[in-house]
Design brief:
By secondary structure, this protein is an alpha+beta fold. Helices cover 49% and strands 16% of the residues. It has nine helices and seven strands. A hairpin with a 2-residue loop joins strand 3 and strand 4 (69-74). The N and C termini lie far apart (56 Å).
Amino acid sequence: MELSGYSAVKTTRIVEAVLFASETPLTTAEIARASGEITAADVESAIDELRQEYEQEERAFQIYPLGDGYQILTRPEYAAYLERLDSVTRTVRLSRAALETLAIIAFRQPVGRLEIEEVRGVSVAGVLRNLQERGLIEVVERAEGLGRPLLYGTTRKFLDHFGLRSLEDLPRPEDLQISLRAEE
């Protein structure tokens, strides 16, 4: 089978090489641009083929959809082995305060600092600054009203960090409340 002038094997290996070398998720268009000879549809086909290949061969890694792109990541069941190595980049863990603040922003965005503080019951200025520095949230607009306060929303990096393709992948608030009641 030929794909846009390349053999399917060569296309698959180009896609694999590009994904392997990237530290961030890439869209199909970005991957296709690396060659200039293959299309986004060719990339999708190659990704499907690689995912099947990795699954059949029981590889320690897989291609995961993140945000609006794809990335090769180690399978979760191997995380414990990687945590023992100093040379492996670790995902920075977020504090409980940061996770609570992120959840409020994700579900209510765009949302201002005062509304977040009202929900959490504590000052969040430092947490907001930390989340902005990490690139997980950003100022998306200013509210109307006195002082035109900043309103925050989540970023693509937020989606990537939590393995989401879009905000629609978040649980629905009504489902979340049911699961919280079940824990009580």
